[in-house]
Amino acid sequence: MAFPERYALSTKAPDRSKEPKAIHPNIILVFRFLITALLCCLSLITLVISILVVKYYEDHKPIVFPSWGSLIYLIILSVLTPIIYFGYNIAMPLAPFINYGDFLYGLFRVKVELLLQFTMCVLWVSGAMAYYEDLGGYQNCQFDGYFHYPKPMDFQHVCYLRQLIVALAFATFGVQVFLWASEMLIALYIFLFLDQESLSEPHFSWGRRAYDFQQGRHVSQQQGNSRSARVARASVVNSEDDPERISQTGRRSGGGRRGVAYSNADMAESQTSLPASLGSRGLQAYTDGEIQGRAGDEEGGWHLRE
């Protein structure tokens, strides 16, 4: 893991070039996006096939319906999976009513992301196994109807669809486990070798702090923060008797969703010194994290100092 700053004259600071390499945060983001997209596609295909099975039985009444419990569970889970991932990864981070420091903002932490992935693994394996026991296998696909109603000629077609749902459900579960296991390995690597606070990072900027520290960008950012703090402190002192001027200063300094209160000297920061590859969502979380770990703070970010 990253070493704290050495104060003893007899102990050398570790060579940063020999430390474990940090993973580029954009690689983590793209990897998670691709695997999640594949997972959602498999979930939607499972949903379509399940609906086709229900439609077949509805179109061939008065055929006796099999037990629908596990199939209905899979249909509901297949609908909720894309909704949950889209809302958690895209919609919620962009929501204007979620501000930095709110309770809902804490849901974006990496530890919550890993817990969500594990929960989805449990839900999918439960649905796949329950469906296989109820409707899986050709031995369970038997025609059950009344004496006056003949067996449909295409009844084997619905049997094929029922077996296809089994394969798709277990494939979706496998991709879900792969996503969770991959994120766990990445989390362990960053936590053990790079940054002990990585589990509290927002999932859309996961690994950014450790990567920037290893690249040495934190030095220029802290210098930019100190220059911006001096400018903001002077503007606040000069306008402390003019509330309207204070509000205008807050708007000019980019208060936005985070409010005018962040424009004072203690919360000032440099927007121009931040890396451009963060994007709009990562930039917000990264700048908020830099406030807690700027130069002169003895408690925040001790494990990431030189």
From TrEMBL:
Transmembrane spans = 27-51, 71-91, 164-194
Which portions of the chain have biased composition (kind: Low complexity)? 226-237
Residue ranges with Basic and acidic residues bias: 295-306
Asked if the record carries the keyword Cell wall biogenesis/degradation, the reply is no
Q: Does the keyword Translocase apply?
A: no
Chain intervals for the UniProt region annotation (Disordered): 220-306
Protein name (database record):
MARVEL domain-containing protein
